[in-house]
Write a structure and sequence with these properties.
Layout: E1 7-9, E2 14-17, E3 28-38, E4 45-46, E5 62-65, E6 74-84, E7 90-100, E8 107-110, E9 114-116, E10 122-127, E11 139-146, E12 151-158, E13 162-165, E14 177-185, E15 191-201
Parallel strand pairs: 1-7, 9-15
Antiparallel strand pairs: 2-5, 3-4, 3-6, 6-7, 8-10, 10-13, 11-12, 11-14, 14-15
Length: 205
């Protein structure tokens, strides 16, 4: 089994690949199963509707779990059995992981919501963010949305929860609106996203 990590982000796809690497002359059949438990419990339970969580079929060699299908703070065991049609030999692999909590409880703000492009300075600050799993340090990514390309352009990535920057002109077709995107990530990549809407006008000087 490939693509295995101890912690996963509930907001992202979970994609796993299984291969038979020895004594595999014929066509293989596959069967995935999922067990889960709360961290306060010692009892594993079987998920009885695995297919509802998947973008793939539970009997393919590859599996893709949809975002927000698994519960943060829960432990999971995803197992697969592979066997050849008409043969008694079977192979089995399993992947144990925990769904990571994203950073929470914090706020992000800006000193002003209006200004002139490439002249005025905008000061962004985030505070009170915590990670329930204790996966520190937190990383703060400050970006703006490029309306022309529908793309987020990174301003700064730092473990310090502040950014001081000038900004380009906003969307001329939308009253010079500029969307700021702030992503707060923990050590394993679990992310919380915050946005701020600014008005950044063209400098006519």
């Amino acid at each position: 089994m490939q693509n295995c990590y101890s912690f996963i982000d509930a907001e992202e796809f979970l994609s796993l690949e299984s291969k038979c690497i020895d004594h595999c002359p014929g066509e293989m059949e596959w069967n995935w199963k999922l067990l889960y438990k709360n961290k306060r419990s010692s009892t594993w339970k079987k998920h009885n509707n695995l297919e509802s969580l998947l973008k793939t079929k539970p009997r393919s060699s590859n599996i893709m779990v949809k975002p927000r299908s698994l519960l943060p703070g829960f432990d999971y065991v995803l197992s697969i059995e592979g066997y050849q049609r008409g043969a008694s030999l079977k192979g089995r692999a399993e992947y144990k992981f925990t769904v990571n909590y994203s950073p929470s409880n914090g706020t992000c703000k800006v000193n002003t919501t209006t200004g002139k492009a490439l002249i005025d300075t905008f000061f962004f600050s985030c505070r009170d963010w915590i990670d329930k799993d204790g996966h520190l340090p937190l990383l703060y990514e400050f970006s703006y949305k490029d309306a022309n390309l529908d793309f987020e352009r990174l301003i700064l990535s730092t473990d310090y929860p502040q950014a001081l920057t000038e900004l380009p002109v906003g969307d001329r077709n939308n009253n010079f609106s500029l969307l700021i995107v702030i992503k707060i990530r923990d050590r394993y990549g679990a992310v919380t996203r915050r946005t701020l809407n600014l008005t950044v006008c063209k400098n006519n000087v």
